[in-house]
Amino acid sequence: MSSVTLDHVHKRFGTAKGVEDVHIHIESGEFFTFLGPSGCGKTTTLRMIAGFYYPTEGSIRFGSQEVTAVPPHKRNTGMVFQNYALFPHMTVFENIAFGLQVRRVAKGEAKERVERIMDLVRLTGYGERRIDQLSGGQQQRVALARALVIEPQILLLDEPLSNLDAKLREETRFEIKRLQLELGITTIYVTHDQSEAMSMSDRIMVMQGGEVQQVGTPHEIYHFPVNRFVASFIGETNLWNGTIVGVEGDEVKVRTASGQVLTGLRQNASPKARIAAGESVLMSIRPESIQESLVTEGENVVTGSVEMAEFTGACVNYVTRVGEESLRSMSINLGRPIKQRGETIRLQIPKESIYFTE
Ligand SMILES: Nc1ncnc2c1ncn2[C@@H]1O[C@H](COP(=O)(O)OP(=O)(O)OP(=O)(O)O)[C@@H](O)[C@H]1O
Ligand SMILES: [Mg+2]
């Protein structure tokens, strides 16, 4: 187990920018995720940690050990590649044992370690099968076993679930988390799937265009997005532009494009949002925080016309037109009559659920 530090790491490919100024400290035993859309620099960053790329600038440490220019096989990291990169002509056992062979571990000990790992990833009995005789999920577990058997300090997983169907993804997600907790191993996980990142991680680094946007716990990233990109990439949200018309103590009054004045709280502002009268501000309001209001007037009660109503059994979801804006809401079904398209609806936006960002 080891902590991982990236100290102002940059990677350029010729003149093209790969990643820029990644500066993070990952704790020993942490489950840390790189999240972002295709091409944002997740794999590049992971490959620098594994040693397959060297940074153009900056340095990398495992614990207090500088590893910036150490080759991959001397880093003691286990990596699962996106396409697994298994050896198709070898058996399951041979695939898993490969890393031990390279490290010249004695045959008897290697056999013991491979069998223990096969048990851990629930592949006991599959040792003699060839890779092409396995399902996608089984192949995924072989790749995981191959990375784990060398007892790495750090486990690196690059979109390991991307080739699996929905049900298998969920099962394997649980499996990876179980293994990580059982072994207490520092794990760096790459995905572009925000729900995967949210459900598995201790902390998440959100990236876009080679740059880090935000690092935080799933709760922080969800509730306190630092900008429009993070707010919209993580879950569903309503993004409303507004102008601050007054700040009174803790309360911030904002006029929306449709002339409605909403009250929010200063404490819910990201560091880059400018909270002062006259400033423009972006508000992020999560659909699940908005409730149908039973009163016609009051603080943050907005009136609109239902554009779309969706009943899922457990929930009632509305898209409501409020002046020039549209507002998505999502509430638990309490058995009230469901509004139809075109009907007037009143919605209450709790002031503590408005987040100000830049
Ligand atoms: N070997 C390379 N040579 C040149 N450019 C590269 C190389 N590897 C990556 N890049 C570029 O660096 C950027 C980041 O790529 P990277 O593979 O890290 O993205 P990613 O976030 O892993 O995307 P995906 O989700 O599609 O796997 C991209 O613009 C990519 O084209
Ligand atoms: Mg990638």
UniProtKB/TrEMBL annotation:
PROSITE patterns: ABC_TRANSPORTER_1 (PS00211), ABC_TRANSPORTER_2 (PS50893)
Keyword Transport annotated: yes
One GO MF term attached to the UniProt entry: ATP hydrolysis activity
Domain of life: Bacteria
Protein keywords: ATP-binding, Nucleotide-binding, Transport
One GO cellular component term: ATP-binding cassette (ABC) transporter complex
Keyword flag ATP-binding: yes
Name of this protein: Spermidine/putrescine ABC transporter ATP-binding protein
UniProt lineage: Bacteria, Bacillati, Bacillota, Bacilli, Bacillales
